[in-house]
Write a structure and sequence with these properties.
This protein has 212 residues and is mainly β. Helix content is 0%, strand content 44%. It has a seven-stranded parallel sheet, with no helix packed on it. It is globular.
């Protein structure tokens, strides 16, 4: 795994996997002792290939310095994360804000496909500001068993292509295809902008697509 706990890191052209015993393949975490926010992190051409855990994860533990700022993902892919075995039942492809706040995140030409829960995911509680997705594809995510019904009072929506609650987001030319719950899931839509995005073959009971 790649484990990052400090600023100014550039990871390029790494393909990796893992079993279900660890929390993520590519993991950025704010921890006690590093008394500053984490800034300037870039993943370029990195792939999480069929791990039993999260593909890419940002989080925070035991520190007040919990902002991850100036983060870039370019041409990265998370495929089948948690699909066959899993660290827990919440495994996603990309999770950019678990217990950390995120600011100035750029996700460009990235693909999330076949993951257990959401393809691209940000938790509700953290602050999410200036988050921009461009030319991304989220396909056939939410491979967990279908619940009896979907609503917004539980965790049903975690099988979305893009789960982006309560924050400031822009989506440019992004595609959601064949995700089991929702293509794009937003709450508090003020500050959310979509340009030339597509959402199709999505919803409970929809058959996963195989289009490439």
């Amino acid at each position: 795994m790649i484990y990052i706990t400090a600023s100014h890191m550039w990871i390029k052209d790494v393909t990796a996997t893992a079993d279900r015993s660890i929390q993520a393949v590519f993991y950025v975490q704010s921890i006690e002792g590093y008394n500053r926010d984490i800034e300037y992190i870039a993943f370029i051409g990195c792939v999480a290939d069929s791990p039993g855990t999260y593909g890419f994860l940002h989080s925070s533990q035991d520190t007040e310095y919990r902002v991850h700022r100036y983060v870039q993902y370019t041409d990265c892919r998370a495929t089948d994360c948690g699909r066959y075995s899993r660290f827990n039942n919440w495994v996603t492809g990309f999770d950019f804000a678990e217990l950390n706040d995120i600011e100035s995140l750029r996700v460009t030409r990235c693909i999330a496909e076949g993951n257990w829960e959401s393809g691209f995911h940000l938790e509700w509680a953290p602050d999410k500001n200036d988050v921009v997705f461009t030319d991304c594809i989220s396909r056939n995510n939410g491979r967990k068993p279908y619940p009896d019904y979907y609503d917004t009072s539980g965790e049903y929506y975690f099988g979305a292509g893009y789960y982006a609650p309560k924050g400031s987001y822009t989506f440019n030319n992004c595609t959601a295809e064949g995700n089991s719950a929702y293509g794009f899931f937003f709450s508090y839509p003020d500050g959310v902008y979509l340009y030339d995005c597509t959402d199709f073959e999505t919803g409970r009971g929809g058959r996963p697509t195989t289009r490439r």
